[in-house]
Amino acid sequence: MGFNTALSGIKASADFLSTTGNNIANSDTTGFKKSRVEFGDLYNTNVIGAGSSNTIGSGVSVNNIAQEFSAGNISYTDNNLDLAVDGTGFFVIDVGGTQAYTRAGDFKLNEEGNLVTNDGAYVQGYNAVNGIIGGSLEDLVVPTERIAPEASTELTIETNLDSRLDDVPPYIAATFEPGDPETYTFTQTENVTDSGGNTHAVTYYYAKSESPNTYQVYATVDGELEDDNGVPWLNTDQFVTFDDEAGSVSGIAFEPIYVGAAEPQVGNIGTTAPIGPVSGTFANGDTLAGSNLAVAGIIDPDNFARKAFDPTDPATYTYGNTNTVYDALGEEHTIGYYFIKQGENNTWEMKVTVDGESTYFDAGTNQDEPFLAEDTVVQFDAQGNITGSYTNYPPYGVANPVQLSITGWDPTDASATLDIDLGESTQYALSSSDTFSQDGFSAGELQGVSFDEDGLLIASYTNQQTAVLGQIALANFDNVDGLTPAGDTSWVASSDSGAANIGRPNTGTFGSIQGGALEESNVDLTEELVALIEAQRNYQANSKTLETENTVTQTIINLR
């Protein structure tokens, strides 16, 4: 009887030793779960009888080799295909048609683009089509083909235009003083003859007013604003509006297109009259009666006014920037957008260039057309908030609300348009700046893949685009301890574990995914080394029992 007891102890100790050794051997195995031996004592009730208090034990048996599914430490790696489950759940894999489950996430791509384990099992998940994740569990695939280009159709320019910036030339708010050059923009002088035949110098002063390209006119005679009676030589307000350098209205650069007794309003453009009359009395009694400056005699402000828009000359616009858009073939084009302050009424003219050009050849009209309609403006309210975009602006025309749109920019598609959204643009007293975005991109090659915490498989391409290719699946069980080890750090379901509950990471009770990381073995080496000593001690002690039983038996045999 003692021999059997000792043998059962030796066998149990050997199993203990083997289990501990297996734990130690797998202390660096990714996703490994340590095991422990669960012992049970044996009693032989056939000799003395059941229920007897004098029953002697018959040794020990190994009731179970149980695995402990506590989580191991998460170790971060440089491989985006390395995955770890942070929380509850197992990766689902297909091993030759059999569904198995693992916590080892050291996955690879095979030659067909499938996500696989080191032993070639297929990782299961939900593949996406055009970014829409499907609902069928299948082999997770990483498509390696390039993505097609997509033409830009809309761009957003959200800008702040510095309210402190000046029109060109700048508005003069100061009270006019002939002796103060800060109170006027430029001058011209004409000689006139009074009633006594004397010659006098009449000087006209042009001071930039609030309206675009418009100047208030003052006059002096021999340097004096008033005649001998204290009456101004030019006793009515006079204003002149010039065309721009491009001659947009008249066809002539800086042509006077309005001259009148008040600042021009919509509908006044094209109305002109001589500046004057300049009249009054001199100290000797001679008079100057009705001297006028003819429209043709008004000098051009070409040395002071803003030149015609030129994207290469920053002096011709107030603020500008460039960015990239893409045509239908994925070719890059440079979009330039420029803002020109027009007057003092919160109005900014907008210009657009494509690849440095302001116009394109329109086969329909057989002439060059601007990418953005002429006289397109952006307006703001008194608080600096954008009120809208328009074509035409006072005093040249009635402002009409428009949707900003660029035409003729795509050489592959003459009908393509590019809508502009100015968003929440502002006119604050801050340095001018803008944020730009657009919806097109060039063709791209697959550059890499990664997983986010929801298990989404995200591809990145050489054109800076990303796409969702699928989502990895997780499984859980009512009784994890009932799983059956299947080797290669995987398990299969059993009747004890129950059927797998399969779902998506970061939902319900499922844990999240840590990309570029692996779950280490949950083996504690210190604990296992102590267990190794215990197993050795138990083995030696049971061997001693066997040795003692042998000695006693020999003593009996040697009796004569």
UniProtKB/TrEMBL annotation:
<dbReference type="Pfam" id="PF06429">
    <property type="entry name" value="Flg_bbr_C"/>
</dbReference>
<dbReference type="InterPro" id="IPR001444">
    <property type="entry name" value="Flag_bb_rod_N"/>
</dbReference>
<dbReference type="GO" id="GO:0009425">
    <property type="term" value="C:bacterial-type flagellum basal body"/>
</dbReference>
<keyword id="KW-0975">Bacterial flagellum</keyword>
<feature type="domain" description="Flagellar hook protein FlgE/F/G-like D1">
    <location>
        <begin position="84"/>
        <end position="158"/>
    </location>
</feature>
<feature type="domain" description="Flagellar hook protein FlgE D2">
    <location>
        <begin position="306"/>
        <end position="441"/>
    </location>
</feature>
<dbReference type="InterPro" id="IPR037925">
    <property type="entry name" value="FlgE/F/G-like"/>
</dbReference>
<dbReference type="InterPro" id="IPR010930">
    <property type="entry name" value="Flg_bb/hook_C_dom"/>
</dbReference>
<dbReference type="InterPro" id="IPR019776">
    <property type="entry name" value="Flagellar_basal_body_rod_CS"/>
</dbReference>
<feature type="domain" description="Flagellar basal body rod protein N-terminal">
    <location>
        <begin position="3"/>
        <end position="33"/>
    </location>
</feature>
<comment type="function">
    <text>A flexible structure which links the flagellar filament to the drive apparatus in the basal body.</text>
</comment>
<dbReference type="InterPro" id="IPR053967">
    <property type="entry name" value="LlgE_F_G-like_D1"/>
</dbReference>
<dbReference type="Pfam" id="PF22692">
    <property type="entry name" value="LlgE_F_G_D1"/>
</dbReference>
<comment type="similarity">
    <text>Belongs to the flagella basal body rod proteins family.</text>
</comment>
<keyword id="KW-0966">Cell projection</keyword>
<dbReference type="InterPro" id="IPR020013">
    <property type="entry name" value="Flagellar_FlgE/F/G"/>
</dbReference>
<keyword id="KW-0282">Flagellum</keyword>
<dbReference type="Pfam" id="PF00460">
    <property type="entry name" value="Flg_bb_rod"/>
</dbReference>
<dbReference type="InterPro" id="IPR011491">
    <property type="entry name" value="FlgE_D2"/>
</dbReference>
<dbReference type="InterPro" id="IPR037058">
    <property type="entry name" value="Falgellar_hook_FlgE_sf"/>
</dbReference>
<keyword id="KW-0969">Cilium</keyword>
<dbReference type="GO" id="GO:0071978">
    <property type="term" value="P:bacterial-type flagellum-dependent swarming motility"/>
</dbReference>
<protein>
    <recommendedName>
        <fullName>Flagellar hook protein FlgE</fullName>
    </recommendedName>
</protein>
<dbReference type="Pfam" id="PF07559">
    <property type="entry name" value="FlgE_D2"/>
</dbReference>
<feature type="domain" description="Flagellar basal-body/hook protein C-terminal">
    <location>
        <begin position="515"/>
        <end position="559"/>
    </location>
</feature>
<dbReference type="GO" id="GO:0005829">
    <property type="term" value="C:cytosol"/>
</dbReference>
<feature type="domain" description="Flagellar hook protein FlgE D2">
    <location>
        <begin position="160"/>
        <end position="263"/>
    </location>
</feature>
<dbReference type="GO" id="GO:0009424">
    <property type="term" value="C:bacterial-type flagellum hook"/>
</dbReference>
